[in-house]
Predict the structure.
Amino acid sequence: MNIRLKFLIKLILILNLSLFSIFTHIYSFPLKVKDDLGREIEIVKKPERLVSLSPSNTEILFALGMDSHIVGVTEYCNYPEEARRKPKVGGFADPDVEKIVSLNPDLVLSFGLVQIPVVKLLEKRGLKTFWVNPHTIRDILFSIERIGMITGSLYKAKKLKDHMEVRLRNIRERLKDIPEEKRPTIFRVMGLNPLSTVGRDSFQTDLFYVAGGRNIFSDIKRDYFEIEETMIFERNPDIVLICGEDEKVLKKRLKEHVAFKNLPSVKDDRILVISCDLLCRPGPRIVDAVEKVSSYLHPERFSNFPQRIISLGPSITESLCLLGLKDRLVGITNYCERPPEIKKKEKVGGVVDISVEKILSLKPDLVFATSLTDPKKVEKLRKLGINVVSFSSPKNFEEICEQFLELGRITGRYNLATEFIKTVRERVSYLRKEFEGLRRPSVFIQVGAKPLFTVAGDSFINDFINFAGGENIARDLRSGFFSREEVLRSNPDVIIIVTMGISGEQEKENWQRYSNLKAVKNNRIFIMDSYKLCSPTPVSFVETLEEVITILHPERKR
């Protein structure tokens, strides 16, 4: 994962910089942090080589942008996709100690009771280990924060934690008036031979409760334990929940199993199947699991909005994922690439040229189109009875925010969208005030080469420059067509080349031929990915704005 914060992170709210300064002051290296064994672990300097012994810790490290520091993972670490390509150190329950030692890690992250013996062996070999074992969702959030501290990525950890908490508050708000006796009871199948389940000490029990349900064995103070068949019938759960990838096969297995085939909930097909990767990993995707369980348990509170959505724009797709609607997306365009796991969704064509037939085959409740979508095909979809909502290209930051709020309103996530926008607007306001009264460097943004093309003042890209304390030399233009002669006459302090179908390095070389340009003299020609500048969500707008600020004001200590 790179600076674009793949998966979502992407999925992240912006914290107030003053709070960030406080935390970096308190938790700068060296530092001491307690792990879940109660040990006070001292970290002298930022670890450069990390080994993760659990899929959940691996996902946390990737979400924090620490992927380049990961030198070893287990065979079960399969998310995000890049994790599969990391060196393997064995299984979850039986990692290879010698292999771990050979990787010379600065820090090993471990998880769960089964790995305590491994922690002791690694300590004897002189390796520093940090062990987590969360019992609740709150513990999971705290684990993320502590891992952020000890890896030098506290700021990203707190942003990720805030994002997860916003989504959890949205769920709690919808379920807050459900009395205890109305919560559907759940039996969690952990094993069929022998029969086993989870008790009060498992974070899954808390997950079910937050989702509006109740584990039938929540009164037993255990994490994982075996049970007798009669115990299930005595407690007679409303729902049987099992994890796996093949829903059809798992349901069939339960309906034929001697311990379940006569259970009322199984006979009535009240069986919920969830991916083990979501349900069993106490990491960033645990909120996805909560949303999936809550939607199943209380469809009346979550399903009165579109359930099958097609997005025809990259920023719309990313915004829907920020709102926790990834599972409702049944189709996207070829250009929708963020978060990375979205690439596995069905493709319905390009941003402009969509396949009406493919869209119809996916039976969507709603299609979100953009101003680039072929208007004739949009009209054809509407005539065929498909609900299409079209968004125009936003002209400024405020329109980006308003469209995000509208997405939230249409999809039933308005409160969640409102919380995002409130935080983002506060952050932008804070950043803009930093440059009041300061000299504003002149900037040329190049988004095309043949012909040369830039952005005028009626574009949200202009807001990036304006909010970052700069002056766009093309702000007064009516169109974006510009000549190199005009750039030379304006002589900008900074040139930003956007890689939208052009070679950034080649264009940089072209500009460097003009040795009298201030941007050339002062080595201030920069290349930025088009995704950052041209397809922002409110959250990524702020992240990109902070990058532009660094470009325009390198003297500013961040």
